[in-house]
């Protein structure tokens, strides 16, 4: 029996092969192969909420694949705009090709959604949800790129727009297709899930000492805002710790040298000779 991830991947490859011609498909399939190495979290949320509220149709996997294509397009644009992740596949091909593939993915996502055999009225509700969420995410991404946030509230607003809106989109797609109604409880916890996911990413990018390190890149996140706010305390504490480490290392080095320089046999012979 196929897992939900396998069913989503089957739909993803079918969509790309059926709608992208040879040259575009060549790059798109490579991007898709990289995407399929990850967990299909957004498509999974769509399927989960559809099933959770009683949806039974297997056509939900086509919609989940459309969701994954939309998220993949945003991931590509994000990496190109941030100019990080140099080893990822879409950063290793010409930028214009990567941008064109990303555009193709988002258009294919929308086309796949609206051509689904699920209830047409509910699909229109989902389409409106996608339009709102994607436009909100683009606004949040712009705020992130400008890197001007200075307060916690500004950070929270940016994450609500950039990240939480996409998690809400995934959860509400399944919910709307199953029930036909907007569920405020789902919206609320999906928003919190988006916050948690972004904080996890920010922690990773702060301790990841490569080209994506937020501290080295002076990227303003909640964590770096706190670092700047408490920099004097952190600096003083760091100096104290550094001094303690230097003293400890010095003592250990001196002790080791004294130990190595003391030869019991040599000293015994000198004493005996005397």
From TrEMBL:
GO molecular function: prenyltransferase activity
Matches recorded under InterPro entries: ComQ, Isoprenoid_synthase_dom_sf, Polyprenyl_synt
Database matches in SUPFAM superfamilies: Terpenoid synthases
Keyword vocabulary terms for this entry: Membrane, Transferase, Transmembrane, Transmembrane helix
Chain ranges passing through the membrane: 233-254
Highest taxon of source: Bacteria
A biological process from GO: isoprenoid biosynthetic process
Family to which the UniProt record says this protein belongs: Belongs to the FPP/GGPP synthase family.
Name of the protein described by the UniProt record: Transcriptional regulator
Lineage: Bacteria, Bacillati, Bacillota, Bacilli, Bacillales
